[in-house]
TrEMBL record:
Species annotation: Caenorhabditis nigoni
GO CC, alphabetical: plasma membrane
Pfam families: 7TM_GPCR_Str
BP terms from Gene Ontology: olfactory behavior
Ranges annotated as spanning the membrane: 6-33, 45-64, 93-115
Domain of life of the source: Eukaryota
Name of the protein in question: 7TM GPCR serpentine receptor class x (Srx) domain-containing protein
Keyword annotations: Membrane, Transmembrane, Transmembrane helix
The keyword Transcription regulation is annotated on this UniProt entry: no
Residue ranges that the Swiss-Prot or TrEMBL entry lists as coiled coil: none
Record InterPro entries: 7TM_GPCR_serpentine_rcpt_Str
One GO molecular-function entry: G protein-coupled olfactory receptor activity
Keyword Transmembrane helix: yes
């Protein structure tokens, strides 16, 4: 079992990393919109969509904050509703959204690398 100190450290780490993620992804979106060269073409929009999705993922993780554990090929996400700021139904939606975001991020990264492979291969 996890100790209380470990859970407290994990919570602080999630808050700090979530704040850093939101800040850096916002800055990245700004740079993509204002500083990317025209030669990037549609790749600019793929980068922007990925960044916006990662900001959504940060929001879901930051406010929903489910605990996720993996072992081998098993994956479980759960949320302590007793320490949550939201109603049980909202917490349930956050867990669903987190699982969706996790799966979608894998497919989004795959599409991203396939696009880059096609762009380099030409």
């Amino acid at each position: 079992m996890f100790s209380v100190q470990w859970i407290h450290l994990l919570t602080i780490t999630e808050i700090v990393c979530g704040s850093i993620s939101a800040t850096l992804n916002s800055f990245l979106a700004y740079l993509i919109l204002t500083r990317s060269p025209k030669e990037m073409g549609p790749y600019k929009w793929l980068l922007l969509y990925t960044t916006i999705f990662e900001m959504l993922y940060t929001f879901v993780n930051f406010f929903g904050g489910p605990s996720v554990h993996t072992f081998g090929s098993a994956f479980i996400a759960f949320l302590d509703t007793n320490s949550s700021y939201f109603a049980r139904e909202v917490d349930e939606i956050f867990v669903y959204a987190y699982c969706f975001c996790f799966g979608f991020s894998m497919s989004m990264f795959s599409a991203h690398f396939i696009y880059r492979y096609g762009a380099v291969d030409e």
